[in-house]
Each structure stands twice: as C-alpha cells, then as structure tokens.
Design a protein that fits this description.
single chain; about 775 residues; alpha+beta; seven-stranded antiparallel beta sheet; four-stranded antiparallel beta sheet; elongated
C-alpha cells in the first residue's frame, strides 16, 4: 500500500510492506537543520534516557546531536532511524512524537546519509591484505598441486563481521607460520615423489648383442662384451614409452698406447655419445649415457673406435694391445606416469639431462609460480625460487629434491599465503583505481569457490578479457554450476545461518531420550543441499525462507514426522502445500543451534531471525539479569511463554524483547531438536505474535510469509554476501552500493544469480581506494 506522509508542508511518499513502514526518499526536501529542527526533537523525546549518565542501550545521543557530519556516526543514526520507523522508540509509556515529527527525523537522517554516499564521489573502500584461511588454504592446495591436505591442527581462524575470511582479523602468528612450514613439507612430499627417478631398470644381457666379426668383437661365456679390434655389437631393443632413457655401462680396458679406449653408443646408426674408458679390470667403472628415445623398437649398438696394437714398440710405455670390455649394460626407462600421483605428473613434466637442471627448473617453475601467486611473475621472483634447485644440485642432491625444496619455499611465500592487491607508487592517498583482471579473478574465485582461479579465468585475465563481452556473467554462471561452488555453501551459508555451530549443541538425553547425535550431520546436510539447490537452480532468494521442497534421508524424515522417505541417501523431497517445513527457519540445523540443551529458546531464535534474516542488531542484554529459571519474580510453574511475559514486564527488558520474542515464539511448535510438537509439557503451544507496526501472525508458516515480504531480508542477505565477497566489514560509504543492489533485485525476480552478479559488478568489488591522509580525512 502506498500513502503520502506530510512533512513540513511537503508530500513524502512512503510504502507499507508486510506491516512495516518502508521509507522512500522525498522528491522535494525543504532546508532542514540538525541543530534547528532535529536536535529539539531529540531533546524532547530521547535525551532523558540517552544521555551521558544513563546511556540506555549504550547510546548517548547528546554527544552526536551537534555534529552535522552524520556519516561520521553512521551506525548510530541508522539505529535511531530503525527504532523510530519500527515504533520501538520512544518506549510505549513515554511521550510520543507525532507522525509528522517522526517522518521529518527519518527523512532528514536518510537524506543526509544518502547525499554524502551517493551524490559525492564514490568510495569503493579498500581490503586489508588477506591471508588464506584454513578452508581457502586447503582448497588452494588441492587445486594447485592436486594434493588433499587437511589443516586440522591449524589454529582456528578469527571471525569478523560474522565471517572467517575478513582481512582485518586474519593475522599470522608465529605458531601458524610454523604450521605452514610443516604443512608445506608434508604437502610437497606427497606432490613430488623422489622415487620416481628410480624407474624400472632392465639388464641388457650379453646374449642380446651380436656382431659380424667374432674375431674383432664377441660375447664371452659369462656375458661380457669384448672388443678386441674396431667393430660394433648390436641389439634390437623394445622401448616401452617415449622419454629420456638412462644407460649404465660397467666397463674397463686393457690399457695400451697414448690414450684410453673409446667406446661409442649408437641408436639407429646415429652416434649418441663417445665414452673414454680409463678404468682397468682391477678397478672397473660405471658410465652413464642419457638419451631421448621415441616409444617403439630401436637398434642399440656399442662400438670400439680406437683399437691399438703395438707389441714390439720401442717405447715400453707404448707397447701393448688395447682392448675394451663391457660386463654389464643396464637400461632405465622413464616412468610412464601410470604409477605417479597426478601432482607429480602435472608439475614434473620432464627430467633434465646432466647440466640442464637450471634451465629445466625455470621451464617447470615459471607456470607453477604464476598459478601459485595468481598473477604473472617477474624474472627476479622466478630466479629466487630456481636458486633452491641450483643449491640442491651444488650439494650433490637430485633434481627432484631441488624441486621439492623450491615448491616448499613457494608454499611458505607471502605471495602464496596472502591475497595481494598492490597499489602503484604513483597513486596518491585517496585515489581510486580499478582492479586488474588477475585481482578480479582472485576475488571472484575466492568468493564462489574459496579457492584460486582456474585456468579458464587465468587465461581470460592474461588477455585482459575477464570483464569484456559478458565474460563476468559467463564465469559466474559456470562457477555456480561447478562442484567447487559447494565451498560457497558450506562457508558462506554455514556462517551466515550459523549452522557451523551445530556440533557445539548437545541435547540433554533425559529431556530428549529419542535424540541421536548422528542427526546433527544430517540436519547440516539438509540445509547445505537446500541452499545449494537455491543457488544452482537460480531460484528467488526469498525461497531460502519458505520453499515447497527440502532434502531428507529416512532417519531425518522420521525425526521430522515425514513419511515416505527410505534409505540413508539424501534425496529431494517435495513438500505438500500445507507443510509446516520448507525454508531454513523450520530446518533442524537452525532450530537446534538456537536452542538450549534442555528446551527451546524463543530469545535465541527470535534474536537469530532479527539479526541473520532481517539484519537488525538489538543491544546486548544487561549484565545483571539472571537466567529465567533463577528469577524470583517469575512463576517457574507457568508455561515458558508466561514466564517470558513476566520477565519482560520490566520496562528495561520490554523494549528489546518486543522485537525478538514474537519471532521466537512463532517457532515454538518445533522443540529444541527440531521435532514437531503440539504441547510444551502440559501446556498447549501458543505460537502467535505481533510485530512493531501491528502486523500479527500465528506460527512458523505465517511468520515466513511475513518475512518473505519484508524488504529487510533482501537487504540483509545482500549486506552479508557483500561482506563475505569483499572480505571486509562494510562501511558507511558502502550503503549506496548495497541499497542499489537490494533495490534492483526485485525487477530481476530476486534471482540468486542476480544478487551474485550485482555484487561482482559493483564498484566496491571491482575497485579499491588507496589509504592515506586523504581517505582518513574524508
């Protein structure tokens, strides 16, 4: 219903939705002053309770009433507007301002805040450099190295603004850095297999070889290849795979003449390497030859090149008969990769020949670093990492050992552990810049996947095309449909709905003898599958509150009293039109986590609806209020609802409890474990309630209908999702962006994808402001 409210002679449009007054900014506004027009209203109706001495609700309005820059105390003024719009303030027993006075105050405050935010230069804010949290670290390791690693013994991440991905609170303690070091070593040990170099060796026995002139070359009875004159011995050998093969020849010579015997290896008549064999029969030596060979059958030949026979030379040192012998030939084939982990095959695509380790390390590590750092790398950055391979070789280690150390160093680098968005030196404090495509790709991937960008996003970023030709929309659609988007469900929805806390709740076995702890995981799974369906099917976000389906298995369905579901597997269950289930408010995960071990908690449930669904945060309860069961003024034999009504008879308690108690009591038909009931002990359930503004409802179904129409839900969800996407708390200058997103969703059918796209295309998501004096003064 639309009506016009008259304020100071100006008609101001307003809208009532679901019983709530939703203000609309005035088209015309006369000059109004804080000191001249608004302060007298506050003085008359507010200062008695909200002054320096009393400061009810921890609010002293007197100290703010002379500051014309309302945006500097945005949270305070938003609370004032909310309290006045909902009729919470002044309290019922206090003198009340007229509708005209309320409207004047509300529109003055909203106008001042809106004028600053939306009419002046936009401020996209800036995000503190963010460390990867536990979930992001685990997922990034999985996608970067194909290694599954659970950082179970990492300390828990701090939570800010309701989420554990907020840059301001993600510190790096010495203990956590130690955990990263240990984890890197363990991960690299799984990713790069040192034994891979010890591929299967095959002995080429003497009988494999044959020659044309047995007087010149032959094979002795013990299998030794003897070369008495120049000539060659050949063998037909099957090479099982393409790659670098290693031949190890144990050889010695009968030394004579001015030089050592020379032995050549040939593959298909092409000379591969010439060996000098100074070893003797008493001290034989092994010589190594590496050669790249295609899969298939090839001819391997060993040839004696420099025969010498001077039995009568006048110089005794040059007198004699030079011959060469090979008593062992071993061929080591490259591993086909069939037995290697995917991580190894992805990173170690080749083994270098001797002396080529540095170049090969550069070739392998350059693309790896770009993926690990989520951006192009400089030659200096690459050289620092390749140096670890060089040092391993210098210390007689293997190439793979060097690669292990290099990758371990990358995993401990701030460039990997933190998400960087570096401003150029030329930027002045207060200046705004657009994020580059690599930075946007990183924001997008950690928003929807809690992990690094994949190859497709990185390729678009490399070409500078991520934000062109509708690619952002295409990527969002692709990412939401990908299995990795389950991380968004467990991380964002799990924290927003607070169902991560379900493991901390243990219903009292005496109060609930039928309860089984395995139901906790099932309830959590129901909510996650439900939220995932809303996301993947691109349903209206209001379906989160009320829908005609859910996900159940036999045990959870039986707990809910829903027939026709059998088996342990979860499946989609269509609910009848008159079902009392459907939507998160009636799911066990939410109902259990907002209860106490022995009973329901209308306060916890109502406060949860108020804060998580409607985005309104009441002040904390006074510290000196005892638990309900200990209050002497409350009849402990009365019903729970009656006891709460006696409790809030106190004026100090009434104003806050009036906000959330009706919301909580609407869910009273669900017991503390989420099961349906008609009675609480001997008392019938009274699930009726009335909200500020006069709208009444009875039970969960009617409450959901009211909440679906309340525009605060869309705004609250947009606020929470924007906070999670940015990794920072929202500031006063973000209000315009959030308001525009929330207000524009209705025209887009409130679709889930529309909310995501509105966030990723917003200025706070795509831009950042350099911090400095200019920003601090603004």
């Amino acid at each position: 219903m639309r009506l016009n409210l008259k304020s100071s002679g100006v008609l101001i449009p307003a809208l009532i939705v679901g019983g709530f007054l939703v203000s609309v900014r005035p088209v015309v506004a006369e000059e109004t002053s804080l000191r001249k027009d608004i302060k007298p209203l506050l003085q008359e109706y507010c200062f008695d309770c909200h002054n320096a001495e009393k400061a009810k609700g921890d609010l002293n309005l007197v100290e703010f009433a002379d500051n014309d820059k309302l945006y500097e105390n945005r949270e305070v003024w938003e609370k004032v507007v909310e309290a006045v719009e909902l009729g919470d303030m002044p309290p019922e027993k206090k003198p009340q301002p007229t509708d005209e006075q309320k409207t004047s105050l509300v529109h003055f405050v909203e106008g001042q805040l809106a004028n600053f935010d939306c009419n002046l230069e936009k401020n996209p804010g800036r995000v503190t450099i963010r460390r990867l949290n536990k979930e992001e670290y685990k997922n990034t390791i999985r996608d970067l190295l194909k290694v599954n690693y659970e950082p179970e013994d990492f300390p828990n991440d701090e939570v800010g603004y309701g989420f554990d991905n907020i840059g301001d609170v993600l510190s790096l303690s010495p203990m956590l850095m130690e955990k990263f070091l240990v984890a890197a070593e363990e991960i690299v040990g799984k990713a790069i297999v040192l034994e891979a170099a010890q591929a299967k060796a095959r002995a080429l026995k003497g009988g494999t070889f044959s020659g044309k002139d047995e007087d010149a070359v032959n094979v002795t009875e013990d299998g030794t290849l003897g070369f008495f004159r120049e000539g060659e011995l050949k063998a037909e050998v099957e090479f099982p795979t393409t790659g670098e093969y290693v031949f190890k020849l144990r050889a010695y010579g009968e030394q004579a003449g001015p030089e050592a015997p020379k032995l050549a290896m040939r593959i298909n008549e092409k000379e591969v390497k010439i060996l000098e064999v100074p070893a003797t029969s008493s001290k034989r030596a092994t010589y190594e030859i590496r050669v790249q060979i295609e899969k298939g059958r090839h001819t391997v030949a060993l040839a004696y090149l420099n025969n010498y026979r001077e039995p009568d030379h006048r110089d005794p040192k040059l007198r004699g008969d030079r011959n060469v012998f090979v008593d062992k030939v071993e061929m080591i084939a490259p591993d086909s990769g069939a037995n290697l982990p995917e991580s190894h095959r992805q990173l170690i695509t080749k083994i270098p020949a001797a002396g080529q380790e540095h170049q090969t390390a550069e070739e392998l590590l350059r693309p790896f670093l770009a993926r690990a750092y989520r951006r192009p790398v400089t030659e200096e950055e690459l050289a620092k990492v390749v140096r670890f391979v060089d040092m391993a070789i210098e210390q007689k280690g293997t190439f793979l050992e060097g690669m292990q150390v290099a990758v371990q160093a990358v995993l401990c680098s701030p460039n990997f552990l933190f998400r960087w968005e570096l401003d150029s030196q030329e930027m002045q404090p207060g200046q705004t810049r657009e994020l580059n495509d690599y930075e946007v790709a990183s924001r997008l991937s950690y928003f929807l996947w809690s992990s690094m960008p994949d190859e497709e996003m990185q390729a678009l970023a490399a070409k500078g095309e991520l934000r062109k030709d509708g690619n952002m929309e295409k990527q969002v659609a692709r990412m939401i449909g990908d299995w990795k988007a389950r991380a968004f469900v467990t991380s964002f929805a799990g924290q927003w709905l607070q169902i991560r806390n379900i493991w901390e709740i243990s219903p009292d076995p005496e109060s609930f003898p039928k309860w089984s702890d395995e139901l906790k995981g099932m309830m959590k799974e129901e909510t996650e599958l439900f939220f995932q369906a809303i996301m993947k099917e691109d349903r209206p976000i209001t379906d989160i509150l009320a829908a005609d389906f859910t996900f159940l298995n036999e045990k959870l369905a039986a707990h809910y009293g829903i027939a026709g579901v059998s088996g342990n597997e979860f499946r989609r269950v269509q609910l009848p039109a008159d079902s009392l289930r459907g939507g998160v408010l009636s799911q066990g995960s939410v109902l259990l986590t907002t209860s106490t071990p022995t009973r329901t908690s209308p306060v916890n449930r109502g406060k949860w609806v108020l804060e998580q669904i409607l985005g309104s945060h009441p002040p904390p309860a006074p510290a000196d209020v005892p638990p309900l069961a200990e209050q002497k003024t409350v009849d402990q034999s009365a019903s729970l609802r009656q006891r709460f009504e006696q409790h809030r008879a106190s004026a100090e308690c009434a104003s806050c409890h009036a906000k959330f108690d009706p919301l909580g009591f609407a869910l009273e038909n669900f017991d503390a474990t989420g099961a349906w009931r008609e009675r609480d002990g001997k008392f019938p359930i009274d699930a009726s309630g009335k909200l500020a503004g006069g709208i009444a409802f009875n039970g969960a179904r009617e409450l959901k209908a009211v909440l679906k129409k309340d525009k605060r839900f869309v705004h609250s969800l947009a606020t929470n999702m924007m906070t999670y996407a940015l990794g920072r708390g929202l500031e006063y200058f973000d209000k315009c962006a959030v308001d525009a997103i929330a207000e524009g969703l209705e025209a887009k059918g409130n679709k889930f994808s529309a909310l995501v796209l509105s966030i990723v295309n917003s200025e706070p998501f795509l831009k950042r402001k350099k911090v400095g004096e200019a920003l601090a003064q603004q």
